[in-house]
């Protein structure tokens, strides 16, 4: 069964995502939608897409679209996702899933009530290297998992007019980069019992560098950092009683792992992604739809809510002013 896809949005993420349909299995990109017809037309021409829509409403009413990838800024995800669910379109929502925990909870409740497939576009979980890391941990290759460390930083000059630093558009380290470090910890350790956060902010209140400590009742922990002020290696390390597993930089789209067992030489496993790496999550959506599933068992909605809860704690602790966009025209 070929899944017919549309992209909502024509920005940087949409432009990165679109070319990987060439590497996906049983998936076809058939439409794109924007708030402006000229933007949709230009994107369609650049990426060889048959139909372009000058409104999100027109996109969602397209009868030849089965699934929608939401690639707009974070605060617009909530309203677009709810409209797509109402239109009975399967959903892949770019991370961060929404700007707020309350927004995420509303989308998840709507999807489950309607029986519509919905998944956060956390491509990291579907990268071959991360899939293998998950298998190795399950096999006991590093013993019992005790802790996760992860960092993801990129130095970006502060520009309040850029989306990355705009409170109205969900800018800041937590929603753009923190979602990755929190998600990798949640993926391997589960949902934490307590969350501690500290960090710095820019003059407009948006978060700049943030450290997260996730603690679990049984003594396990995760130590995480996200930054728009400092470039970091982008490494994730899983530490167990029998060794460690390093997801090599940059861990959110890695091509290799290093397995270090006690009293053994390190072993490097090379497992590159196909294409840019987005096709793996496209394939996951197709698999789930073909099997009649409304959630992925790899990137389930409960995981999304758990991650979003940590992000909300961070934003609240630092006083970052974010909210859902309630003015978006559908």
UniProtKB/TrEMBL annotation:
One of its GO terms (molecular function) is nucleotide binding. Pfam families: GFO_IDH_MocA, GFO_IDH_MocA_C3. Keywords: Oxidoreductase. SUPFAM superfamilies: Glyceraldehyde-3-phosphate dehydrogenase-like, C-terminal domain, NAD(P)-binding Rossmann-fold domains. Residues 131-246 form the GFO/IDH/MocA-like oxidoreductase domain. It comes from the Bacteria. Residues 4-120 form the Gfo/Idh/MocA-like oxidoreductase N-terminal domain. Belongs to the Gfo/Idh/MocA family. This is Predicted dehydrogenase. The lineage of its organism: Bacteria, Bacillati, Actinomycetota, Actinomycetes, Propionibacteriales.
């Amino acid at each position: 069964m070929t899944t017919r896809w549309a992209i909502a949005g024509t920005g940087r993420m949409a432009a990165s995502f679109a070319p990987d349909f060439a590497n996906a299995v049983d998936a076809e990109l058939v439409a794109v939608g924007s708030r402006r017809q000229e933007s949709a037309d230009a994107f369609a021409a650049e990426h060889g897409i048959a139909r372009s829509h000058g409104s999100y409403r027109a996109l969602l009413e397209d009868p030849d679209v089965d699934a929608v990838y939401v690639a707009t800024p974070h605060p617009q995800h909530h309203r677009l996702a709810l409209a797509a669910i109402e239109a009975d379109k399967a959903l892949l929502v770019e991370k961060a899933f929404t700007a707020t925990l309350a927004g995420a909870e509303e989308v998840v409740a709507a999807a489950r009530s309607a029986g519509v497939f919905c998944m956060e576009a956390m491509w990291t979980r579907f990268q071959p290297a991360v899939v293998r890391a998950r298998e190795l941990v399950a096999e006991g290759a590093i013993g019992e998992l005790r802790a996760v460390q992860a960092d993801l930083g990129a130095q970006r000059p502060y520009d309040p007019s850029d989306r990355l630093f705009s409170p109205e558009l969900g800018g800041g380290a937590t929603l753009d980069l923190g979602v990755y470090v929190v998600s990798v910890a949640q993926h391997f350790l589960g949902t934490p019992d307590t969350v501690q956060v500290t960090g710095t902010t820019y003059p407009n209140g948006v978060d700049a560098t943030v450290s997260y400590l996730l603690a679990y009742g049984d003594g396990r922990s995760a130590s995480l950092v996200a930054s728009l002020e400092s470039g970091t290696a982008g490494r994730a390390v899983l530490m167990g009683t029998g060794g460690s597993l390093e997801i090599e930089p940059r861990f959110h789209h890695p091509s290799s792992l290093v397995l270090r067992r006690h009293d053994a030489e390190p072993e490097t496993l090379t497992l590159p992604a196909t294409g840019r790496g987005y096709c793996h999550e496209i394939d996951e959506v197709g698999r789930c739809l073909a099997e009649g599933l409304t959630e992925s068992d790899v990137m389930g909605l409960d995981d999304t809510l758990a991650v979003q809860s940590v992000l909300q704690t961070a934003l609240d602790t630092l006083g970052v002013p974010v909210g859902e966009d309630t003015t978006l025209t559908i």
